[in-house]
Design a protein that fits this description.
- With 432 residues, the chain is mainly α.
- The protein has one domain.
- 75% of the residues lie in helices and 1% in strands.
- The chain contains 20 helices and two strands.
- The chain has helices spanning 2-10, 21-36, 44-62, 66-70, 75-86, 92-103, 108-122, 126-135, 137-157, 162-173, 178-193, 197-228, 257-280, 286-300, 305-333, 337-341, 346-369, 374-386, 389-399, 406-431, and strands at residues 12-13, 19-20.
- The chain has a two-stranded antiparallel sheet with strand order 1-2.
- It starts with a helix and ends with a helix.
- Keywords: Membrane, Symport, Transmembrane, Transmembrane helix, Transport.
- This is Na+/citrate or Na+/malate symporter.
- It comes from Enterocloster lavalensis.
- The chain crosses the membrane at residues 21-38, 44-62, 71-88, 108-124, 136-159, 165-183, 204-225, 260-277, 284-305, 317-337, 349-370, 411-431.
């Protein structure tokens, strides 16, 4: 009997970071209990502890239910945390700690995205990066055109003019989120229409919110579609001529702990460089500058191979360890269920759905013309245009288990979002 008890405590569980189940539960009880007692530090220490315990615990429970695992996937973690917050069941200490950790002074979300951008680009097959990069704006353009046309047509069916649908629903949904999309777009509208900025922002922000939620559910749908129709997906590979393995660069090193340190330093340097260059040229988003800088280094081959390898290993560690818990963190800190419920009028939801569906169809079909897989093209060039920027990219990609495509998702959110602002400014001049 004693031997059986020992096995219970020492046998690892792959859904709990290979930690013994009993020990994980003990550690989680201490962490979450501290949150309910108001004793959880509102710092990086409390944030790391809380989101890892909640994320892996919720996944451990849900992965016992095949229906949830095979449909909602990792999105179930964020949705569960958002629902709990909506009903006020999280204590203030837990919400405060997680909010500060994810998007406050600690800003773990930016740290995570930087790791994914740097590692995914440096770890990409150089030939693929060149081919895919050149073609990528083709499906982005296709998704944008289809989203505007389908949204405008459905809007007219519900008594909304094509112009208003484009200005207040389609454009904001496809515009790259709030900070880089809705805010500058509202200022643009304010100047052109002679309205106060808060008035124009209030008219377009609901579209950003509902677009983000629809993009998450769209990713769940596309993941299921890929399983039902395998020819439509590369299971994480974007281009049809390359499998997931063929999409990766090949290295022949044995990893050491120093590689993780080098990878972390290189990743953070590219992240900071993006912000420096954004200060010089603010019209290009800091993440876009990071993408451009990393891509130049990869294509030119100026980085030593061992440093590339180190950044890829750091990316592997960050993605493998933090994707699951980050879903819980975003659910608590950033997913506002009430904001979505407040705008759920049937007509508005149907028009917004048409916009997101147009983005899926346009990006997916046009992507196939340049030899992209339908699912991966629709997710990155379509849904990652329609979501709410950085946190939306994480939720969309985690919902369809394609976090390796973060670099392309960020191109959509940042450079694609800037493209939408240009399109909206041109349309303002034509339609007003």
């Amino acid at each position: 009997m004693k031997e059986n008890n020992q096995n219970t405590l020492t046998t690892g569980n792959r859904f709990l970071m290979d930690m013994p189940t009993a020990w994980f539960m003990i550690l989680s009880l201490i962490i979450v209990g501290a949150g309910f007692l108001g004793k959880l530090p509102t710092s990086m220490v409390g944030g790391f502890a809380l989101f890892m315990s909640l994320g892996y615990l919720i996944r451990f429970i849900y992965w016992k239910v095949p229906l949830i695992k095979n449909t909602l996937g990792l999105a179930s973690i964020g949705l569960t945390c958002a629902i709990i917050k909506h009903f006020g069941l999280w204590p203030e200490n837990i919400v405060e700690t997680m909010t500060n950790f994810i998007q406050g002074d600690t800003d773990f979300l930016s740290w995570f995205i930087a790791a994914l951008i740097t590692g995914s680009i440096l770890g990409m097959n150089r030939e693929l990066l060149i081919k895919a990069g050149i073609r990528y704006f083709v499906p982005i353009t296709g998704g944008l055109i289809f989203a505007y046309l389908l949204g405008g047509l459905v809007g007219q069916a519900f008594g909304m003019s094509f112009k208003d649908t484009i200005f207040y629903i389609a454009g904001p949904i496809m515009g790259g989120g709030t900070g880089a999309g809705a805010v500058p777009m509202s200022e643009m509208y304010s100047e052109a229409m002679g309205l106060a900025t808060d008035v124009t922002f209030a008219k377009i922000y609901p579209s950003v919110t509902i677009g983000n939620w629809l993009a998450i559910f769209g990713a769940i749908f596309l993941n299921i579609l890929g399983k039902k129709a395998p020819k439509l997906t590369g299971n994480g590979a974007l281009m049809q001529d390359y499998s997931v393995e063929e999409s990766k660069a090949s290295y022949h090193y044995n990893m050491t702990m120093n590689d993780l340190g080098t990878g972390l330093m290189l990743t953070m340097t590219f992240f900071i460089l993006g912000r420096v260059l954004n200060g010089v040229c603010p019209i290009v988003h800091a993440y876009a500058w990071t993408i451009i800088s990393v891509a130049i280094c990869k294509i030119s081959g100026i980085l030593p191979q061992r440093m590339e390898y180190s950044a890829v290993k750091w990316y592997d560690f960050a993605q493998g360890t933090f994707t699951v818990p980050l879903s819980a963190g975003i659910g608590i800190a950033m997913l506002n269920l009430q904001a979505m419920l407040d705008i759920l009028s049937p007509g508005f939801v149907i028009i917004a759905t048409a916009v997101v569906l147009g983005a899926i169809i346009g990006a997916g079909l046009i992507g196939m013309l340049v030899k992209f897989y339908f699912v991966e093209s629709a997710v990155t060039a379509g849904l990652c245009m329609a979501n709410a920027g950085g946190n939306g990219d994480v939720m969309v990609l985690s919902s369809c288990d394609r976090m390796n495509l973060m670099s392309f998702a960020q191109i959509s959110s940042r450079i694609g979002g800037a493209l939408v602002l240009v399109v909206q400014s041109v349309l303002l001049g034509i339609l007003l």
